[in-house]
Amino acid sequence: MVHKVQAVVVKEKNAPVSLETILVPDPGPGEALVDILTCGVCHTDLHYKQGAINDDYPFLLGHEATGVVSAVGPDVTEVAPGDRVVLNWRAVCGECRACRKGEPQYCFNTANATQKMTLEDGTELTPALGIGAFAEKTLVAAGQCTKVDDDVDPAAVGLLGCGVMAGIGAAINTGEVQRGESVAVIGCGGVGIAAVAGAKLAGATTIIAVDIDPAKVEMAKAQGATHGINSKEEDPVEAIRALTGGFGADVVIDAVGRPETYKQAFYARDLAGRVVLVGVPNPDMKIELPLADVFGRGGSLKSSWYGDCLPSRDFPMLVEQYKLGRLDLDAFVTERIGLGDIEEAFAKMHDGKVLRSVVEL
C-alpha cells in the first residue's frame, strides 16, 4: 500500500519550500512507518535548502521529530505499532569497526530506509538526514526509532532528535564535563544553550555563556549559565580567564563553528583543558594555529558529531531527567507552528528570534 500525505519539500537550491503531496510506501524488511506528531525546525534543514549539504534535490525536509509507529516491516523487533518514538539519524549497524570496538556512538554505517518516498510524478525524494519528517508520515529504518515514554510533551522531547542532543552531548559525552568543573560555551543558539543545560546536568559549577547578543546570553542563564559575556563588548578569552582564576575553563565548547570562535575556544581553555567543536563549519573554512601552542597547551581538541550520542542510551535517560524536572526541554520550544509556516520559521531562525519553532501535525 502507498500512502498519500502532505509534506514540505525544497526542489532546488535556495528555492522556497513547498507543501506537496508525496507517496510513502508501506515498510519493507527492517523499516518502520511513522505517523509524525511534531518536528523541530533545525539549522540543518536550512542548510539542505541552501545547498550546503549536497545537491540531491528535491529534499524532503525535517528530522528532529517525535511520532507513533503505525507499521513495521518483516523481522523488525526494535519497535512495534503504537510505540511513541523519537527519530534519530544514528541507527547503529552493530557490525562496523566502531561497533565492534564497543563504540557504537561512532557507528560508521548507520542505516536508513531502503525504499524511496517520492513525489506524485515518481520523482525520488532525498529525506533530510535519512528521516524527512516535515510530513504526516515518513518511512525510516527501524533502528532510527528510539522508544520513549508517551506521557511527555512530544514537541519538547522530539528536540532530542538533533540540536538539543548535540548540545547536551557535546558537554556530557564529548567534553566529559565533571562535577565542579568550569565550562564556557561560545554561541548561545539552540545547540549552545543545550550545551549549557548539559554542563549544568553534569554538575559544572562555573558555566560561562558567550554570545554577541545579550538576549541570548540571558536565555543561557535561564538554562544554568552562572556568568554571561557579551563578546561584542569585551574579549571573550580574557573574560573567561578572569572568571576562572586567570587560568581558563576546563572545557570550552564552540557552538558556532567559525575559525574566529574556534581560536577563542582554543585560547580560553586551561592548560590540559578540552576544546569541543559542535558548531558546524562551512566546507570552505580553514584555521591556522601555531603548532607550538597546540603542543604546549596539552589537553585535547575534539569534534562532537551528534553529541557523540547513542540514542538508545541517551534519549530515554534525558527524557527521565526532563520528567524529574532537571532538564527544561520545554524552554527550547519557542513557538508551535503548522506545515505551512516553515519558510517563515527559517526567517526567524536566521534573525535569531527563536530557539526552536516546532511543527505540530
TrEMBL record:
Task: State whether keyword Zinc applies.
Answer: yes
Q: Which coenzyme or cofactor does it need?
A: Zn(2+)
**What Gene3D superfamilies does this protein's entry cite?**
Medium-chain alcohol dehydrogenases, catalytic domain (3.90.180.10), NAD(P)-binding Rossmann-like Domain (3.40.50.720)
Q: What keywords sit in the KW lines?
A: Metal-binding, NAD, Oxidoreductase, Zinc
List, in alphabetical order, the Gene Ontology terms for molecular function in this entry.
mycothiol-dependent formaldehyde dehydrogenase activity; S-(hydroxymethyl)glutathione dehydrogenase [NAD(P)+] activity; zinc ion binding
Q: Mind telling me which GO cellular component terms the entry cites?
A: cytosol
EC id: 1.1.1.306
Query: Could you tell me which CDD domains the record lists for this protein?
Result: Zn_ADH_class_III (cd08279)
Q: Which domain of life is it from?
A: Bacteria
Its BP terms in the Gene Ontology are: formaldehyde catabolic process
Q: Which residues form the Enoyl reductase (ER) domain?
A: 17-359
Q: Which family does it belong to?
A: Belongs to the zinc-containing alcohol dehydrogenase family.
What protein is this chain from? S-(Hydroxymethyl)mycothiol dehydrogenase
What is the species of this protein?
Arthrobacter zhangbolii
